[in-house]
Amino acid sequence: MGIGISELSFKYSKNNSSLILGKFTANFGTAWRWNKAIAVHNIPQNYALTEKLGITAITKYGDIKKSGLYNFSLSFFTNDRKNFDNSLFHRRQSASKSQALAGDTRSLASYALATDISFDFSEKEKLRYHIGYSKLAVNKRASSLPSDIIKKQQGIVFGMNYEFPINRDFSGEAILEHANIKNPDGDSRVLNNYLTTNFILKYSNKYSLMIGNSRNKNKNISLNSSRRNISEINIGYEFTKNKYFDRLTTQFGYYQRIEKNADRGHKNKALSILIRYYKNF
Description:
This protein is mainly beta. The chain contains no helices and 13 strands. It has one domain.
């Protein structure tokens, strides 16, 4: 039993710079965030750098309505599961403590750096870019891999989000993110490639239609390569804010999950409904 705390940190800000110390999510990728789709985000979640312990420095400059707002971040961290084993912090990571994951070092030997560029051309037209790089240390003493093939996990990600008006009632949003993860969990024989694409059509800021797809190609030079893919279509509705909630949305959708390797393939289809409730206290 424990308390599921994914982030708990202290933040100091001065002018356009901030320093964060504690448990946080490192700035690497955005497609994995659970705020757009029902199922498509499940694949890019594999490279999300969540529940890290360490320090993050952030600085920004520019004008979001003119030359663009540039946000730079640099994080040094370790995974929390080796530090708070006996505390109230509950580990959500399903892997056992004896299984070495990238970032499982006592020191802050892993890092991630990112640049976020934002443009607000108008109230309804906005463009966002995200570029990130990460390098995660591996605990060779705990890893079950042969020591001669263990290397640090490296990742690079590029994302774009574009919101634009179509006419007075309709607007659109296009989302694209590509990521490469080399040496996942230290295995230099493996390369993971990710691509997520979503398009959302909105009507009157209340109704939405989303079509999305995410895929992962796993290339292994010593074993069979594999591929996973999730395709989704959903319709949504956002209720008007009132005293009971700040935001309430519903989505009803259909998604298809496909997994393939050299020997066989598996397909799964499902209907799903998702309700999101937001209330500030």
